[in-house]
Each structure stands twice: as structure tokens, then as C-alpha cells.
Amino acid sequence: MNKLTINDIAKLCGVGKSTVSRVLNNDPKVSEKTKQHVLAVIKQYNFKPSRSARAMRGIENKVIGIIVTRLDSSSENRVLRGILNRLEELGYEHFITESRFDIELVQEHLYSFEQRQIDGIIVFGFSGLGQKILQPYSSKLVAIAQYYPALTSIYYDDQGAIRLLLERLYQENYRHIGYIGIHKQDYTTGYLRYQSYMDFCAAHQLSPNACLGELNYLTGYALTAEILQQPNTDAIVCATDSLAFGVNKFLQEQQRDDIQVCSVGNNPLLKFLFPQNISINFGLFRAGQSAVELLINLLATGQKTHCCIPSNFE
Questions:
Q1: Which of 30, 161, 183, 198 is most buried, judged by most C-beta within 10 A?
Q2: Considering only CA atoms, which of 57, 68, 51, 67 is closest in space to residue 119?
Q3: Locate the HTH lacI-type domain: which residues (predicted)?
Q4: Is the Cβ–Cβ distance between 219 and 246 less than 8 Å?
């Protein structure tokens, strides 16, 4: 069979050429029923729009697809700003989609990018998103926030960040340090950061006092009361700034200014509202720019590389 054109797909679907074009461009005005029907035909016939068709639409530069987990994540938005800043400098086009930690949504977005002949892909990884799902796109994909051995990936020094906070507190003579984190099912922000706290306590003969929950400020607020059940608590380390918002709010309401709070993230709003909070930063904007640089290298050479973003105080 000769290679199908967009006109052929339109006839097979019983719709106009413009409708197929709008589906390919993810136009929200297309009804979900029509969209799914057109995508099913496209998948059945393995249709891919030609480069010339892309050029006619004015898309001559490289196009990068970006899959974030949450558009309302302050940390991911700082990484995203780094990505977009570098893409703008290069004159690249981009698509941004959201996975909401849904593996099936990631697969849908990847398939959509493939149909549009996206030149490169940047994916924000999360626990549960296995390497196997991403590997078919490994020749043009960079993952952020998770380490994938067979993929080009940028990840954070989660254990080192918690260790740096604890070392600072220890040097300042804090000895009853609580920890508020998220469930260990999340490997990086959850398990690795919690384990770093536990390892530090064991190495320095400190009594651990840890509570784990969801990744939001309400969890931080609620779990602070549990941490303070140990009456000698003089500091609390939070796995993220989101948790620290809740912790600081609880302590403020209780008029407890005797407890030092630390967190990972360096959120500007947190520093404005609670300037006494000690934060550590991964250099998220820089991580976004580095992701683009790794992608450019991958597309040019095919060489897969890894980059660990260190943490530091600012």
C-alpha cells in the first residue's frame, strides 16, 4: 500500500481534512469522540504526517514535546522555565502536556508526540513510571527527576540534600531533629530522603522521630503535632517546601519560635512568609537548561548520558 496522506485518513474517518489536522495539533475544539475515532484510524494505519506537511504549517525548526507531572508544581515550573528559556534561545518549538502521575497518560502523550514526528522529548519522571515505557523513545528522550540506567536522565542528589540540612543542624548543636516526609512508595522524594535521615540518625546516635504522609502543606501541618509529641524536639527537617509551609504555619499558630525548620526546594514564597526557614536548592532552573543540552547532544550523537544535580544553600 502506498503511503497514506492526510486526505486518505480524512476519507477513512469520514471527516474533513481540517478535522484530522486539528486532531494532530491537539485542538481542544475537537470533540473527544471525534478525536478518539481519528486517532484510532491513525494508529491502525500507522499514519505519520510528512515533514513537508509540517513545513507548510510553518514548523521548520525542531519541535520538543514536554511531559510534566503537575502544572501546579512550583519546583517543576522552575525546571520548566529553564527548559523554555533554552528552547527559546535555540528557536525551537514546544508542546507541553501533563501526566498527573498517570502512566497511561504518559503513554498517550508519547504516542501523540510520535504521530506528530516530534524531534525530541523531555519527560518528568515519577515513581511507577518504569524505564520500559520510555525506552522505545530512548533515541530522542531525556528524563528528569528519576535515574534511568538505559536512558539519558537528569536526577537530583536527594540523599545529599537531606544530609546537608542535617549536618548544618548538627553543627549548630541541634540534637532532637524530627523529620516530615512523604510515603516511601515514592522512591526519590519519599524513600531516598527518608533513608538519608535515618542513616544520619544512626551514624550520629540520634533518636529518629519521623512521620510520613502526602505531598502537600496540609500533611505538613497535620504531622507537626505528631512530631512534637517528643517534647525535646528542637528542629524539623521537611522533605519538600510544600510540607514546610504547613509545618511553619502550625508552629506559628502555636507560637513555637524555638524550633528550627528546614526543607528542600528553596521556594521564594516560603522564604518571604517564613524567612527563618532554612532551605536547600537543587538549581532547578539550571536543571531545565541542562536537560535541553543533554537532549541536543543525544539527537546529534546518539550518546546517552546521565547528570546528577547537586544541592546547595543559597
A1: 161
A2: 51
A3: 4-58
A4: yes
| Range with top average pLDDT, 81-95, 240-254, 263-277 | 240-254
pTM confidence score: 0.71
**What's the pLDDT at 58?**
47
Location of C-alpha cell 517546601 = 241
Q: Which CATH architecture has domain 61-156+285-313?
A: 3-Layer(aba) Sandwich (3.40)
Residue 49, pLDDT score: 65
From first CA to last CA, the distance across the chain in angstroms is 61
Q: Which of 10, 38, 34 is nearest to 115 (CA)?
A: 38
Whether CATH 3.30.70.330 fits 159-281: no
Average pLDDT over residues 118-142: 94
* Cβ 260 vs Cβ 278: under 8 Å: yes
| Residue-wise burial string across 263-296, b where 16 or more C-beta atoms lie within 10 A, e elsewhere | bbbbbeebeeebeebbbbbbbbbebbbbbbebbb
Give ∠ CA 290-295-297 in degrees, rounded to 5: 95
In the chain, where does the domain assigned CATH 3.40.50.2300 lie? 61-156+285-313, 159-281
Segment 192-218 shows an average pLDDT of 96
Eight-class DSSP state of 254: T
DSSP 145: S
